[in-house]
Write a structure and sequence with these properties.
Number of helices: 13
Low-confidence stretches: 4-9, 17-26
Shape: elongated
Oligomer: single chain
Number of domains: 2
Radius of gyration: 26 Å
CATH topology of the largest domain: Serine Threonine Protein Phosphatase 5, Tetratricopeptide repeat
Largest sheet: none
Strand content: under 5%
Order of helices and strands: HHHHHHHHHHHHH
CATH class of the largest domain: Mainly Alpha
Amino acid sequence: MRQPSYLSAPLPALLWALPLLAALAAGCGWSAPPTVNLHRAVQVGDLDQIRRHIAAGTDLNQRDGNGDLPLHLAARAGQVAVARELADHGATLTARDSAGRTPLELALTHGRTQVAVLLVQLGAPLEAQAMLVTLVHAGVWDRDSVDFLLRRGADLNRPDAQGRTPLHLAVTLGHLETVKRLIARGADVNRPDGAGRTALALARARDPRQPNTADIQTALQQSGARP
């Protein structure tokens, strides 16, 4: 039986033809199928596998067993290129995970400010003051994340509807490190809340058996706080 002519072609000719064949395949829109789970590909930053999933029509807003969407995983891990790829192909910027957090909130919670910048540029809504309060409630204080929010209008001394500043909230919740960092960044230790209570008064009103109570009082007093 006569063998096909391409099998008898000189090796250099075959090597020359390979790029042409690849280009023809790409021009026809053909893409190799994914071989790795989408969420796993996002976690390890495998753009090739993610693009295969996109070409195959995989739902980019599917949840894993923990309730996370791929964009949440990319935001938490600081995967900027992956986050852009997902967002450019339909990943929902405002989707919430099982705990109600958006990708932007996760990025800031984990100090992934490059991802946060990208998400805002792509249209993710941001209320800087509300996000600052969210981080304080969670006991999270990442310097880069806070600077990101301050540059976008957040104010360490702005009160909420009850007259509570972020420092009042941190004291009430017993977040010692957050209290210290708020003070270091310029929070007013003697500003009263809506009920006329200073941060030190709130600290003294805490049950002494609660964690960090004594240390919070000490930190406030050392910074000039008055009851």
